[in-house]
Amino acid sequence: MLAAILKVALSIVLAVAGSLAGQRWIARLYAAEPDVLSYPQSVGVNEKKRQSFLTMALGFLFCFASLQGHFTVITWLGAMTMLYFCVLFTLTDWEQHVIFDRMLLPFAALGLVYTLCTGGLLNHILAALAGGVVFLLLSVLTRGGIGGGDIKLMAALGLWFGSEALTGIAMTGIVLAGLVALVMLLTKQKGRLDYMAYGPYFAIAAILSLLF
To answer: pLDDT tens digits, residue range 128-141?
Structure first.
């Protein structure tokens, strides 16, 4: 019981610290690269909404992951890192239809370090290459429907998860995105030719793969 309480307390502390750092990081990236933002006029409004959501999302995910008994110290640290970045990717892609290289590069590098610590390096590198190539082809076939950020995200997730899990993440993400797109079309929130961000659904699929 005491161990569980300590885990929850540590998770909450990490969530609060992570949300503050994430809020500042996103704000700096938006300010540094305004040309890549799809909705620059909504930056201020989103910033006010983002802080509470970021804290709650990280707090819930960190606590949920920490209370699962199958994580070692290394895999727990990896889980916290992966969850943190996936939440940030979800937010920036949802708000502005962009996943920044300045977030993806450290995420990929940490995934490589994590794989070196846990094993399966060759499989994870091949998964990263395959994920990048497959989604590059999908981007060509969909004429940009799959963006460059999505391609890089799937390659980075390959480093973290390996080939088998990455296949499930890709399929789950596509299904989630399709369901949401259908709902948006039916409710007339999106038109058939409107751009849709796929990154959040692959990030959510990665979170589900990690936790379940």
So the answer is: 999 999 999 999 98
Q: Which residues lie below 8 Å from residue 64, measured CB to CB, with a gap of 6+?
A: 211
What are the tokens at 36? 């890549």
CA–CA separation, 66 and 44 (whole Å):
33
Digit-coded pLDDT (tens) for 91-122: 999 999 999 999 999 999 999 999 999 999 99
| Closest C-alpha to 155, from 119, 88, 202, 208 | 202
HEC secondary structure over 15-45: HHHHHHHHHHHHHHHHHHCHHHCCCHHHHHH
On whether the CB atoms of residues 27 and 54 are closer than 8 A, the answer is no
* Model pTM score: 0.95
